[in-house]
Write the structure tokens for this entry.
Amino acid sequence: MSLKAAIIPVTAFAQNCAIVWDDAARAATVVDPGGDVDTILQALESEGLTAEQIVLTHGHIDHAGGALELKERAGGIPVIGPHRADQMLLDHLEQQGRAYGLDGARNATPDRWLEEGEEVAIAGQEFAVLHCPGHSPGSVVFFSAALRFAIVGDVLFRGSIGRTDFPYGDHAALINAITTKLLPLGDDVRFTCGHGPGGDFGTERRTNPFLRG
């Protein structure tokens, strides 16, 4: 398989915007363009890639704040995801931007909302959609059984989990999503996350302090 990926840190939150592409077709999916759209476009150009779609794991400013600008500057490509339960966040991205001192964020409405059990084609590979609320009500994870690879957003981190201290956060729901939907996929599944280095589910199952006991 010729799938490749690059991580582009964006915004003051050092959010992992991911560019995923098929090396033969040179068509890329941009995951969670939270901001710094010029930097994202430069990364695409340096690899000789054409962005074909934007995929969002959830509606927080550092993940979705640049989605509408990138959509427009890349020729109107579609924005896909997250789950509709995050509409309240996407409808207030500009407000989030002001609250966190991030300029240029614009409210965004996806061209396609996602539901549990659907699939999204990313760089020619089918990724199953898993609705994993808790960090946000509409957080989704993308999983490729063929590649044994997942894009988890802020649901899970190496050695940690997503924050749930927001008014809409739900710690119990997040732990349930991780333990019933992600970990059963297999210890060998590698993941990339929204902040910091990725890892694999087996290591998190054994050592992540939020998941032990």
In short: The mean pLDDT is 96. The domain at 3-207 is CATH 3.60.15.10 (Metallo-beta-lactamase; Chain A).
